[in-house]
Specification:
There is one protein chain. This protein has a 6-stranded mixed beta sheet with strand order 6-7-8-3-9-10, sandwiched between helices. The chain has a 4-stranded antiparallel beta sheet with strand order 2-1-4-5, covered by helices on one side. With about 240 residues, the chain is of the alpha/beta class. Helix 3 packs across helix 4. The protein has 9 helices and 10 strands. It has a domain of about 70 residues. The chain is globular, with a radius of gyration of 18 Å. It binds adenosine-5'-diphosphate and magnesium ion. Its EC number is 3.6.3.-. It is an enzyme of class 3 (hydrolase). This is Glutamine transport ATP-binding protein GlnQ.
């Protein structure tokens, strides 16, 4: 069974159809890269996966749990899916350590000691243990994004969703975040990553999805995607970003 299964998903914002018949799946341990022009529905699609956005037609299941089923415990489901956004979204008034522990204590019921130990382990993994007592504003963008990843990991997620995690960063900070993501991928994390970092896709993606105007236009192995079989629309998009 797929870890994330998206079937015939359609979504409208009012009368505007933002997603049309989107279907794909991510197996456990797979890394899927989602790319496509601005406004093609990439963010909307991954927000549907953890129910940050409702959809009107189709089904999405995560680890067998149906996201659109009104009986599903959405806060519980969301607590199992890590999400990393373009703009980090750390709590600015809390220290790094508090950012790492609050969800673990409030949502998972861990004690402060347990949460500290767990959070610091992940902070160490992203190379920022020495910064635990700083506030987000005292860190660079790349460091803040690594804290955001550590925070998501400290909830022991079954899958991670990334929405353009490096696109707000200065160029020299992009690699420090991608390195963490590559390591995570190699450890077998199930990941759905919206990104235009094609080097990342070439290194770790199992499949690449190309979206345009709310549709999944291509969903293929990276060899096929970067090879010769891709559609004209994907080719023209790639020629602009590569
Ligand atoms: P992408 O992430 O690929 O840039 P989005 O999923 O953010 O695309 O947006 C897809 C389309 O939906 C865009 O045309 C955008 O303007 C529109 N859209 C996004 N969010 C909303 C919203 N809350 N209300 C209405 N339209 C929206
Ligand atoms: Mg987006």
């Amino acid at each position: 069974m797929a870890m994330i299964d998206i079937k015939d998903v359609n979504k409208w914002y009012g009368t505007f159809q933002v997603l049309t018949d989107c279907s794909t799946s991510v197996e456990k341990g797979q890394v899927i890269v989602v790319c496509g022009p601005s406004g093609s529905g990439k963010s909307t699609l991954i927000k549907c996966v953890n129910a940050l956005e409702p959809f009107q037609k189709g089904t999405i299941t995560v680890d067998g749990v149906s996201v659109g089923d009104p009986k599903t415990d959405l806060p519980k489901l969301r607590s199992r899916i890590g999400m990393v956004f373009q703009n980090f979204e750390l709590f600015p008034h809390m220290s790094v350590q508090a950012n790492l522990t609050i969800g673990q204590m409030k949502v998972l019921g861990r004690t402060r000691d347990q949460a500290d130990e767990h959070g610091l382990k992940y902070l160490d993994r992203v190379g920022l243990k020495a910064h635990a007592h700083k506030f987000p504003g005292q860190l660079s963008g790349g460091q803040q994004q690594r804290v955001a990843i550590a925070r998501a990991l400290s909830m022991d997620p079954i899958a991670m969703l990334f929405d353009e995690p490096t696109s707000a960063l200065d160029p020299e900070m992009i690699n420090e975040v991608l390195d963490v993501m590559v390591e995570l991928a190699r450890e077998g994390m199930t990941m759905m990553c919206v990104t235009h970092e094609m080097g990342f896709a070439k290194t770790v993606a199992h499949r690449v999805i190309f979206m345009d105007k709310g549709q999944i236009v291509e969903d293929c192995s990276k060899a096929d995607f970067f090879g010769t079989t891709r559609s004209e629309r994907a080719q023209s998009f790639l020629s602009k970003i590569l």
